[in-house]
From TrEMBL:
PANTHER family: ERO1-LIKE PROTEIN, ERO1-RELATED. It is found in: Endoplasmic reticulum membrane. Keywords: Disulfide bond, Electron transport, Endoplasmic reticulum, FAD, Flavoprotein, Glycoprotein, Membrane, Oxidoreductase, Redox-active center, Signal, Transport. This is Putative endoplasmic reticulum oxidoreductin-1-like protein. Residues 1-19 form the signal peptide.
Amino acid sequence: MVNHCVIFILFALTIGASSRNERGTDRESCFCLLQGQVDDCACNIDTIDHFNNFKVYPILKSLLLKDYFRFFKVNLKRPCPFWPDDSRCALRDCSVTTCSEDSLPQSLRGHKRSYIPNGSMSKYSKEANEQDSCDENHDGLGSIDNTISDESYREFERWQKHDDSQDNFCEIDDESSASMEYVDLSLNPERYTGYAGASAHRIWRSIYEENCFKPNVGYGPYTTSKNLNAMCLEKRAFYRAISGLHTSINVHLCANHLSRDPLGQPSWGPNAIEFERRFSPRMTKGEGPQWLRNLYFVYLLELGALAKAAPYLLHETFYTSAEDETVPAAVRALLDAARDFPHHFNDSAMFNGKKDALKLKEEFKAHFRNISRIM
């Protein structure tokens, strides 16, 4: 949850409140659900707002300007595995601009393969196979060929991808692929891209209808705030996580929306009308405020994930160029804040004591992997 988006939400709610007399004063024109305790969590919304604005956001704002977090490697040409799609932005001002070689920090230029020491793939790597703890300073019948062919290496990679898929909740891009390109995230912020119409609706329809858990028979085909509590904690958490992600994307595009000045030049800024269209109770059959609440749920979920990953992240170097000298200290401050926050989502209550817990966990993984492939 980025601070300027929180400010925009408050701005949009103020606009909605000031125009309430024109649209009616009933509950359908009210965002009053954005208060109180976050669903399935032991934390209040105003507590999260205060913590984010004063503890997390200042650190994130400084980190996002550093080279380590600015330059992100991604395969923009990767085809969708589920349906044909041109994946083109509807507006030329919204297309993603990749980095030229000259615009990258020196350490990233010509970078083709990422080698992770002690990683799961390292045992199949050339470096690992060139190291030998045995004494080979003799000639004898015991000598063996310890090299590995490119064909065998590719086969080992295929095996490792299969092994990883059994544990990973998402599909990870191969950084050694020739199709991977660097993108400067400071020049390509999350904002309205013009990606709309049937293609965009198909993505979210597939996510919600085919990869989210559904209420039991008798509650209707769609998950709503009214039938969500009919599901178990695990299924509720899954839905809230996906809904919160969707909300984050929509809030960003409302906060950074494309318009034109009188001369036809592009201008980016908040669009309160678009925000109201996407989130007001009147326009969403009462669901909009609940979707915004799910954004707070995702915040707590991610905060807990940061706290759990802290022992690993504290050993990362976080270095791309001289610009990154202050990054380790800032990351440590962020992780300390995450670990000190007392109200994470209690994921230890999930997958416990239920007869079908293991099966449910496998369904979780399968759904998340599918969603990562769709997006």
